[in-house]
Amino acid sequence: MNRWVLAVGLAAALGACTPTPQSPSTAAKHDDTTSSPVPPPAASPTPIEVPATPAETWLLPGDIGPLTTRLQLETRFGKANMREETFDGAEGIGSYPALVVFPDDPRKRLELVLDANDPDAPIRELRVASADSLWHDASGLRTGMTLAELAALNDAPVSFYGLDWDYGGTVQDWHGGKLANAVDNPLFHRVTLSARAGAGDAALPSGDTVFRSDDGKWPGIGKDLVVAELGISWPNDGDE
């Protein structure tokens, strides 16, 4: 055999056995398919929503009625959150008992006025007397609001007794406004005004005389008088 032909044959055989070099892009594709898979990013934890205390919790009278029992109250509020207290009546009428819910927390405190002669008789009144109380009624009536805000909520003037005596500040007439105690309404609202904290020497009406919220003689009373006490009772049920 010719030596040149033999040399060419050997070269071709060696070329067939040598692997074809890969381009960089091809090599990269090969590496991607052989490397360990990258785990997907961890999902963000679902935020836990802490339910807010519903406004209905502090709505008056809510599910409390004149015949609500002590056991029902203890079930709702907790026995440890209730205490019996005694209050002095107006103008020497005498003392009377009350069952107080959350007695040591001004914002949650609620006084359930009982019959002085029969503590087991129906509840006479629900009473709130803290300026920053959470309790309110469905209309938005609450302690701490100014006389101007009260008249605006009533959508009519408000008449009240002057300050500085046992019935001082008690609202006497809603003048047909939205807060008026209608004859056929089973609930009776009682509101008492007092001087705003920080009113200082502001000129405020006093004495056993009725004044109106829109009396021009007392231009400052709209901001200097506030709702100090709110009471809700059931006179119709009590008469049955």
Write a brief caption for the model:
This protein is α+β, with helices and mostly antiparallel strands and 240 residues long.
Describe the 3D structure.
This protein has 240 residues and is α+β, with helices and mostly antiparallel strands. It has one domain. 21% of the residues lie in helices and 22% in strands. Strands 2-3-4-5-11-9 form a 6-stranded antiparallel β-sheet. It has a 3-stranded antiparallel β-sheet with strand order 8-7-10, with no helix packed on it. Strand 3 (95-101) and strand 4 form a beta hairpin. The protein is globular. Residues 1-34 and 47-53 have low confidence and may be disordered.
Task: Give the helices and strands, then pairings.
Elements: H1 3-17, H2 24-34, E1 59-60, H3 70-77, E2 82-88, E3 95-101, E4 110-113, E5 125-128, E6 136-137, H4 147-154, E7 159-161, E8 171-173, E9 188-195, E10 210-212, H5 221-224, E11 225-233, H6 235-239
Parallel strand pairs: 1-6
Antiparallel strand pairs: 2-3, 3-4, 4-5, 5-11, 7-8, 7-10, 9-11
Primary descriptors:
six-stranded antiparallel sheet, 21% helix, alpha+beta, 240 residues
